[in-house]
## 1
Amino acid sequence: MTLATADGAGRISARVVLLKGVGVDGFRFYTNYESLKGTQLAAHPRAALCFHWKLLGEQVQVRIEGDVSKTSDDDSDAYFATRARGSQIGAWASLQSQTMDDPADLDRRVADVEARFAGGPVPRPPHWSGFRIVPERIEFWKGMPSRLHVRNVYTRQDGAWTTQRLYP
Ligand SMILES: Cc1cc2nc3c(=O)[nH]c(=O)nc-3n(C[C@H](O)[C@H](O)[C@H](O)COP(=O)(O)O)c2cc1C
């Protein structure tokens, strides 16, 4: 999904992340809290998500907006434990979104982390965890002929959802 975030000054940044969970508590993804998106979400805890599917000639888009909070340590630990060991090591080794002066630094950092955790499990780094977007607006968009697309928006206010149809 595409995840759009903004910093405190309203500068917006978008990138793709993996949706790892959907539930009554919102939409979850996992990342490095010290990355650009992590620092933006700390400064401005709101986000927009966008999905696009192209299915056998049909196009579907789903847009979600809402407040963002960190997931619990238990949730983050449980997900981190399911990751491949190489990805767990990468989460320690990568200074995500920071400038890399020498590409060999990444290999050195990976080797250091491998040596540090050799023969044992790789714990979750303290700077790596999940975020949850709690939706307050969800739009389902369905492509139709002549661009007369169907747009149904669900908006949550004071715990209750209302729905509206929008012009395409
Ligand atoms: C298909 C795909 C899935 C990705 N999934 C994630 C993810 O789940 N978490 C993550 O931190 N980055 C993920 N990335 C990398 C991000 O797009 C991005 O490069 C990285 O998180 C740094 O973004 P930032 O500098 O805006 O924080 C993914 C990229 C692609 C193309």
## 2
Amino acid sequence: MIIGVPKEIKNNENRVGLTPAGVKEIIMRGHQVYVQQSAGLNSGFPDEAYLSAGANLLPTIEEVYAVAEMIVKVKEPIASEYPLIRENQLLFTYFHFASDENLTKAMIASKAVCLAYETVEKPDGSLPLLIPMSEVAGRMATQEGTRFLEKPQGGKGILLGGVPGVKPAKVLVLGGGIVGFNAAKMAAGLGAEVIIADISLPRLRWLNENLPANVKTLYSSSHNIEGELRDTDLVIGAVLIPGAKAPYVLTKEMIPLLKKGSVLVDVAIDQGGCFETSHATTHANPVYEINGVIHYCVANIPGAVPHTSTLALTNATLPYVITLANEGWEKACEMDHGLRLGLNIVKGKIVYQAVAEAFGWA
Ligand SMILES: NC(=O)c1ccc[n+]([C@@H]2O[C@H](COP(=O)([O-])OP(=O)(O)OC[C@H]3O[C@@H](n4cnc5c(N)ncnc54)[C@H](O)[C@@H]3O)[C@@H](O)[C@H]2O)c1
């Protein structure tokens, strides 16, 4: 199969759909890969690395779309890419159709086959192509929260791990899923006193067994959260109710309970945020203050570490890319029910019910 990797052109998107190592694996199996010039540069992969892996380089995005039977990328196509997409072409990328009616209509009109990373499932119902980005975002949440606790960044001026004779900072993680577990693990590793809260008792049991002793679990309720806030330095919001807007687990009435210079990191901002005072920010301008409490609400946290994020994403996508290239999308989706769930739009028809329902087209 001929596979194309265009350069991402969405604002501030520095990741790339395949690494040189991934390209090599694909070519070893008898396929051809065409990469747009400088596509991997911002992730730390120069053109020469793709050439050494056996890829062909093309100077323009138009040429990549024109030659490829399958496009492997990261973000959904943006308007300038719509006319480049061809009938029957396979697009394997994040789409998030339900939040973008124009994109949905454009992909229906293109008659392409849209296989969305975000709806591919494993037999246990987990989402293997979303998990790596939650792992990155969870770890980054602690890293960024720690940074903004520093005095020159506006924070309390407190070191997460303390030092001998001085108590460490206290970190409260709300939501103990993939993001929350990774945030708590990082904070614990830096020596903080960590509390992680969730509403799922089986999950709290699992967290209790799998996190170090300086992490305590807590059932998530307004009462319990209020009880923790007075001496908390960093709160990380990582709550998710699948398919729904995030609930407010930290209300605006609770903000005065926090001391000035405390830091809130709302990772759930991409689902509307789980703190009532959150609004989305960017890497260029990541924080704002309310009542002296710093809010960090960047909606694409993994974008700050494109090298790590690209490697993490492509580790997860590569086995699927190889199967799709070897078998073609129809046979590959027949063989793997979880991959079939990634099909959102096929040759002009929506085949994923939640997408149709999102626009009242069911
Ligand atoms: N900002 C970013 O760059 C970025 C990157 C990756 C993920 N995210 C977002 O982070 C959020 C968390 O993702 P995840 O992969 O960890 O999800 P997940 O499903 O693994 O975990 C969510 C957890 O929240 C818990 N929960 C639900 N309601 C709760 C409540 N009221 N109080 C406490 N816990 C509650 C669930 O029981 C679950 O354990 C999602 O909104 C996701 O989209 C954001």
